[in-house]
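One thing: could you explain this record?
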Amino acid sequence: MRTNIERFLERFPKNATNWAQATDEVRDMARKARELLEEYEGVIVEPVNFRAIETPAEWNTEGREFVLTNFDRMADRTKERFYNYFREWFEGEEE
């Protein structure tokens, strides 16, 4: 699961130079990771303040790190929920 998530996140480079390279997917994944951690694990995590981010590189870097760090915090069952929520994204190119 984690490998597919990492592969998907590589679409959003840490050195992005324009906003076309930093889209809502990273933000949506970060939000869902935070929500699932709170709902199923009882872990409260401070969200990434995407509104305060000024560059596409920062958007991608902070978002990617947040997603992976919090995915690693999840119990296996919560990881499966997260993965299933975004399965089409993670496995979309393998078809």
The mean pLDDT is 94.
